[in-house]
Amino acid sequence: MVKILYFAGLREAVGTAREDITLEAGVADIAALRRQLAARGEPWAALTRGRSLRAALNQQMVGDAAALKDGDEVAFFPPVTGG
Amino acid sequence: MDAAVSVRSESFDLGVEMAALTAGRSDVGAVASFVGLVRQLGEGQPLLSMTLEHYPGMTEAALAEIVVEAGARWPLLAVRVIHRHGTLAPGDPIVLVLVAAAHRGEAFAACEFIMDYLKTRAPFWKKEATAAGGRWVDARDSDDSAAARWS
Question: Which domain holds residue A57?
Fold first, then answer.
């Protein structure tokens, strides 16, 4: 199982802040996880559209090549706007 | 380096934080401070409130990492970062950065560096509320270029 968190506008679009999912066979990095979720259709399809939605793995910002393993915490969110 | 970061809903007082930062020490020759406020919108419906969402856990870690990086670049004596979350009104303070050093050069530079990195790396998101409804604030390219000039 992997814990997925959504924040800000993406959280509102998907209608939940958190879900636990099982990685499909062959899903071993952030890019593949994006594709697994995007296959559900809208609004998850935004995860593979353009480059706007960012990812964090175990609370560190990462790129799409970051490797996943069971028990990881992954977050998806729009570009940050603090300060 | 004496460093502390805080993410909280309560406000802060610049004078109180500054006094606490320098209390009991005489090696500080310069303190640079930055305070960010909720600004009224320039056009359209007036801003009623601003709500800041964040990623508990990652936020604190990201801020601490930024402060450590500042400490590696300049000889700093003490740093405080306070960033608020929750719903704020126009004019309310959002963020405080205080940097104490022996001399002003490193204090000014590190204070600006911390804000530039915070803007692009700390997981906060702002949502504006007006009479027309809520709207998530878009990230600005100028924030990315401000952070990029330090690398």
Answer: 2-77
Question: What is the ipTM, given to two decimal places?
Answer: 0.95
Tens-digit pLDDT profile for residues B123-143: 999 999 999 999 999 998 888
Q: How many domains does chain A have?
A: 1
Sheet holding A73-77, edge to edge: A18-21, A2-6, A73-77, A54-57, A60-62
pLDDT value, residue B97: 98
Q: Which fold has domain B2-148?
A: Aldehyde Oxidoreductase; domain 3 (3.90.1170)
Distance CA B130, CA B47 (A): 5
Domain assignments of chain B as residue spans, ordered by start: 2-148
Specify the CATH number for the domain of residue A61: 3.10.20.30
Residues of B in contact with A83 (CB under 8 A): 36, 83, 94-95, 115, 118-119, 122, 124
Of A60, A75, A80, the CB nearest to B122: A80
Q: What is the mean pLDDT of chain B?
A: 96
Tell me how far apart the alpha carbons of residues B54 and B95 are, in angstroms, rounded to a whole number. 13
Å from B24 to nearest chain A CA? 30
Q: Is residue A82 part of a domain?
A: no
What predicted TM-score, i.e. pTM, was given to this entire model?
0.94
Which of A9, A11, A77 is nearest residue B123 as measured by Cβ atoms?
A77
Please give the Cα distance from B50 to B52 (Å, whole number). 7
Does the pLDDT of residue B64 top 90, yes or no? yes
* C-beta atoms of B124 and A77 within 8 A: no
